[in-house]
Amino acid sequence: MWIIRVQSPIGQKRVELEEKSTVRDLMQAVADAFGLDIKVAAKQLCYDHGHASLVYAGATRSATTISECGLRHGTQLYLNLDRDLGEDEEEEKEDDTSPEALFKNIKSIKDLPRPPHKGRHCTHDNTIRCARCYSEWEEAFLRYIGKAREDLEMNDHILAAEGAMPCAALDPWDMSPSSSMDRERAKQRMLHHSGRISNVQQLKDNVTKFQLNIERQKTAFVRRLSIAASQMDEIRRCIDEGMFHRNLYGVMYGRFQYVSEDDKLKAYVFIDWIFLPPQECIAGAIVLKKDGSSKKITKAAEQIAAAFGLVNLGNFFTHFNDRGFILSATEISSLALRSARYEAKGAEYAKFMTSLRGTIDREKREFIVDAFAASRQLINLARNNVLIENRSDDPGNFVRFSQKQIFELKSSELVDAVCFLVPVALTTHSDSQTSMATGISSWSFPSPGGTCLPTLLDLKTYYTNAVAQKKSRQVLYGNCNLLLYLAEVLTLKDVQEIIQLVKTSATDGSFRRYDGAIEQCLRASGI
Prior knowledge:
The chain is an alpha+beta fold. It has helices spanning 23-34, 38-44, 99-103, 131-145, 149-156, 165-170, 180-194, 200-206, 214-217, 232-243, 295-308, 329-344, 376-384, 403-406, 412-415, 430-434, 456-468, 473-477, 480-489, 492-503, 512-525, and strands at residues 2-8, 11-17, 45-46, 76-79, 220-222, 249-258, 267-276, 287-289, 349-352, 358-361, 366-369, 389-390, 399-402.
């Protein structure tokens, strides 16, 4: 069973198909899911936002299988549905579309719809509309949806254009107005909006384009296994293959929590990944999807994580075009314990030693991030006093996040605040390396949750190469992706026993029984 995700202006839906389903089956399933005619679905279904039409999109009766069209489990397609905005205001016509539905996908003035036809005053030809046409249509549309132009202007400086991000990354402080007059105008605008936007919920209403359903986001989540500093090259390869070419980007949200109030030497840091637009995660180590075809993998991952004593945590995060940062799972895991130990010793500040520089102020119960590691949108919000507070007296111009704003807010409420983060150099800390629980890696074996699922042929290649290179069995079996796949090939109990052998640095002879089980499985399959 394959899951094909279809993103449309009215939301994302999943289509379940068999591996041998044809193109017509795909078109029919999409049409049924969105209540469309199959010909409409075939015409509007695209590979990406650039309107690159799906192969065989016009051949609704094609018997070609979807795998031959380059589609795999987890592939996301886009359905370009045009919304009918009705006639001009002068021509009264009933329209069942509610203002809330029309405003749902509008995040700024640039996203306002274009006039459906020329105004009566326009003297241009049939293909051109004048500035007055656009202005009058925008005013009429804004009145219809019950919003003011200022509501959308507020979003323009929060949701910076994608093309402006390299500039923000190079100089995150280059955002002040060019003259004192412009500076005064900006101040007046901020004061004008301070009463209108008084809390996070109102801010969410203004940028509904970026609002995500977190429960839907959790249909895909990452289970963290330890990653050593020597494995960063593998992560970079996963970024190039999984993120860069798929143009995924998003934001990060984290919260700190003790295991118990009695034992403050143990603590967790939880990370939620929020992708824009909403879509499932791709990670370097393991990606698990909560659907019917992966329940066994999910259970195996939970057992493996429990066997290593690991917290379920994301491995890394990156923006498209490599404009992002890598958050080491090892650093995050050591952060909680070190912060708790520092606090137990009475230290005022505990270092937040990750690629995102910052500190945890336990006395004031605040998480402080270096402003130079934050983006233009984050600083703008700080200066406008909308979501976070900027304290200029802090050394290094830190931006402070209160405990209420960071540790207790929902992930969706921070989407508006942290749309992008500028690159931050990855720092490898020796104490993070020594704090690793195991040497388990994800090297040279495909992820069971990736776009290209591993097969017995991958298992044979991996096993044969390891034997030919005379690698120890501890290194051979010390692969988290391999362990997940072996949970399908062997049994979960066998995998748990292998984990214990790896953790205790057992000799090669201890793995002999599992070598025989793998070889027998390969022989039985005829590979």
